[in-house]
Amino acid sequence: MLAELATAIQVSIRQNYDLTIESAKPIGTGAMSTTMRLATNRGTLFLKIYKSARNQKPPAQPDLQRIAFTHTVQTFLHQEDFPVPRLLPNNSGETFSVCDSPLETGEVYALSEFIEGSDYDVANSDQLRASGEMLGRLHQQLRQFKPRIELAEPSLETEIFIQLQERLSRIQPVVAEDLVSPTQINSWMHEVDVLKSSVGALHDTQYEQEWIIHGDYRAQNLKFDGSDIRAILDLDTACPALRLYDLAYALVFFPAVYQATPLTTDQQSTFLRAYESICPLSEAEREMLPTHLRLAFLRGMTLWLDLYYFAGMSDRTRPWIQGYLQHTQSLF
Fold first, then answer.
1. Does residue 173 lie within any of the structural domains?
2. Could you tell me which residue, 200 or 86, shows the higher pLDDT?
3. How far apart are CA 112 and CA 150, in angstroms?
């Protein structure tokens, strides 16, 4: 139904891409974008409408800069025959467009090819193994990427700790005993300070090398054909960072949304072995992995609690929160 797609976006797509939209079907709304499946006179396409980092209108320059950076990453990977969607350039040759003119009133959006595929099967160990190998290949391939755009915003590490402190401070006054106790929140606030010191202190030369990472490598952002990966999606958070941020987040939250519990210890081992068969860790990185696993857990858990209390998503996130809290010990 075209009613699902704002008229202004429809007009902008027609003007910028010479496309006729026949139908639009919502796919999802996330923290960073709203996505739709479009049937057009040039086949099925994927539409992503970006959200500003702080819901500003006009879009802030850092938002445009981040989008441009992630698009250069995605274009590079596509050119290297990686399974990522091809971004469609507009009539000016740009990979994203701004709806309406002037910029002050616009929304930023992008079109790409739509890659068909199946969702992750939580019982398929071959898919899990293939996903670990693919993350290794992704990190390895992106070692060859030479950014033409520098991100001016804070480093991922800085951003993560600011985000954790903000979320925990916001959650602390409203937390309900039946979900997470105030004592637990206070404990996590202290732990964030400890983790910040640990991450900043234990580096060696090899460990300090920055990689380009996906930023949100989970099953939800992959499409499969049997045991093969057909598509790596959602590179919106790709950025220069230590690869342990990617690897640890995947080890903790890879099956999130598809099941309410984390990977088992054996499944974590399967994923990690597959990753290291392609892109081995240094000894210093192995030493730091437990710290990054704990940090990843707090990142995801505080996000879910934030959505639970402040985004009207309590019914959806409660099973995830409870499931992960019950299995915390198996994660570390």
1. yes
2. 86
3. 24
Q: How many Å apart are CA 221 and CA 138, to the nearest integer?
A: 14
| 118 within a domain of the structure (yes/no) | no
- Measured CA to CA, the distance from residue 173 to residue 165 in angstroms comes to 13
Residue 85 belongs to a domain with what CATH number?
Answer: 3.30.200.20
Query: Model pTM?
Result: 0.92
Element (H, E) at 50: strand 43-50
Task: Assign residue 235 the CATH number of its domain.
Answer: 3.90.1200.10
* Boundaries of domain holding 26: 2-113
Distances 253 to 150, 185, 219, 249 between C-alpha atoms, Å: 29, 20, 9, 6
Residue 176 and residue 72 in one domain: no
Rounded distance, CA 130 to CA 235, Å? Answer: 19
For 259-291, write each residue's pLDDT tens digit. Answer: 999 999 999 999 999 999 999 999 999 999 999
pLDDT digits (tens, 9 = 90+) for 6-17: 788 888 999 999
Residue 34 lies in a domain: yes
Residue 21 lies in a domain: yes
Residues in the chain: 332
Average pLDDT of the segment spanning 138-152: 89
